[in-house]
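job 3f2a | input accepted
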Amino acid sequence: MKYIKSFPIELTFWILALVLLATANPHEHHFSLCPLANLGITWCPGCGLGRSITALFHGDVSASFSHHWFGIPALILICYRIYQLTKQLFNKQKEFNLKF
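job 3f2a | predicted structure (100 res):
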C-alpha cells in the first residue's frame, strides 16, 4: 500500500501520453477523448492539439502549427512538467536513502 501512495501517477500519465502521440500516425483519424467532439459539437478550443504534437514529433512544424498554434508551447510545458516530476521523484528517493 505504501508503494501505491508513492507511485508517480502523473509522471507516468504524461510520459505515456507523449509516447502514444509520438508513435501515432498524424495522417490517420483517431478516436477522440474530447467530450465536446463526442457530443457532436464541431468547435473545441483544444481541437487539433494532439495532432499538432504528433506532427511535431514527426518533424513537420508547419503542419503542427496549422493543426493548432498551441502545440509547440504545450509540448514544451509538458516536457517541463515531466522534468519537474522526475526531479521531485529523485529528491524523494535521495531523502529516503539518507534516512536508512
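job 3f2a | The first helix runs from residue 2 to 6.
job 3f2a | closed
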